[in-house]
Amino acid sequence: MAIKAKPELSNDNILNDILAHTTKSKLDQFIREYAHDNDDFQAFFMEKFSPKPKSDSRMKPSEDYVETIQKAFIKSGIKSYSRYGNRIEDFGFDAGTVSEKLEHLLEKAHYFIRHDNREEAICIAQKLIETIPDYWDEGFDYECLVPEVYDRAIDLLEEMLNEKLSNDQVESIFSWYEKVIEDKKHEYVGQNTSLEVFEKYFVSDAVGGFDRVLRIINRRIANAGDYEQERAVLEKIYLLVENDREEDADQTIGEFLFYPEVRKIKLKRMLEENRYDQAIELLQEGIVIARKKKETGIESEWLQKLLFVYKQLNNSKKVLEITKKLFVQGTEQRTCYQSIKKITPKAEWHEMLSWILQNLSERGFYSSIELKADIFIEHQMWDDLWQLCLRRGIEFLRQYEKHLRPRYEKEILTVYLKYVQQQASITDRKAYIIVANMLNRMKSFDGGPALVGQLVNQYRQIYKRRIYMMKELDSIKL
To answer: Would you list the DSSP string of 415-455?
Structure first.
């Protein structure tokens, strides 16, 4: 059979064939070497492929970045297989793979910035911010790798705004922001930043920026929940103050005075102007609101600020009254104790001390119990300290042993003996260590060496099969 002659390839087809079978590294090497020796080729190549903007007018983006981002999520889908190895479906996404691909876009944006093409860099950052919330699901990204890219896109856009973009570029970003900020999908994506960081740049650099940003914040206040609303109100107050709208700021403060952080702003102003009577009234109102809401932390904070005001006024009676309230709440009780002690007349101290001890709960914070013990030591109430240690247990007794031992040495040794007998009955290496440590401690008591020697001999007979216990007993020097 005759072999048919192959059709002759055109130069275009030959070129395509060569390019299809030539590695990127070889092409890179050829371009570098040829451009090095041929100035005309280098100039033509730079003109054709330079990332610099081709003109002052806004050009179409060099690629469809939304599609690129979509593919990063879709093509990384986690594959589900049947028991026989047949793929059933793709679901979710691989966060590591997605973040790696999206980071390439961020690097590309920096590449355009290095070559003064900020329009393209702005476009990339905006598309990342717009598109990531549509596909990201925290259920597939516990380490929040993708939101980190989202944050970095915001940071990149902020860096460009901070570098003073052209008026047209600022206006373009602001118009884009006015649209995206209304979309709820952005609420819980950012981890360390948020879209609101752009607003300060728009206020100063965009036409009508103050009024436009104020409208955005007012909408945020109207539609937000409590936490987000308080934050938005504070943003509004700072915006008004920074732009010399003091009257409007005062009106906003008065309207939202039920928020603690807003009340603090008004309080700060009153204290700076020495309007103490008004500050007292403001704080008392805050305390009432906090009690109704059962916000003990906020109530305690207002009481501490009220205490500061009365100290400024040298009102000892009120200072004592509020300090006692803070003491009962458990707020910095040791400091409160010292203050009460300093304020209370000597003739009234015995009665006050009884009140203090009654209000130091043994069921509360450990620091309260330690304070109670220290007060017993300070006032040489040894019987009370002994009973407290018995109620609190062996570790507490060991902590205060040096104070009690001169009066209760025999009783302490008895308690230690009972404890060591209990620990010796436990089959556990930690218990063996406790036994050895306690026996060494008991040796320093009157009659201790003889008792410890007796116990060691006893344990060597009873627990002789416990190898690790025997090793611990060997560490006891008799």
So the answer is: HHHHHHHHHHTS--HHHHHHHHHHHHHHTTSTTHHHHHHHH
Q: How far apart are CA 335 and CA 404, in angstroms?
A: 25
Is there a domain that residue 104 lies in?
yes
Closest by CA to 78, choosing from 141, 27, 15, 168, is 141
The model's pLDDT over 115-168, given as tens digits with 9 standing for 90+, comes to: 989 999 999 999 999 999 999 999 999 999 999 999 999 999 999 999 878 999
0.85 cut: is pTM over it? no
Domains held by the chain: number: 2
Q: Is residue 151 in a domain?
A: yes
What is the Cα 415 distance to its own chain's centre? 46
In a domain, 425, yes or no: yes
Domain coverage including residue 456: 411-478
Is the residue at 274 inside a domain? no
Q: Quick one: CA dihedral 387, 388, 393, 399, positive or negative?
A: negative
Domain boundary among 147, 174, 207: 207
| Angle at 118 (CA atoms; ends 108, 103), nearest 5 degrees | 25
Nearest to 286 by CA among 265, 263, 310: 263
Would you call 342 exposed, middle or buried from its count of C-beta atoms within 10 A (0-12, 13-18, 19+)? exposed
Domain boundary, last residue among 159, 177, 207: 207
Q: For 421-467, what is each residue's pLDDT tens digit?
A: 999 999 999 999 999 999 999 999 999 999 999 999 999 999 999 99
Count the residues in the chain: 478
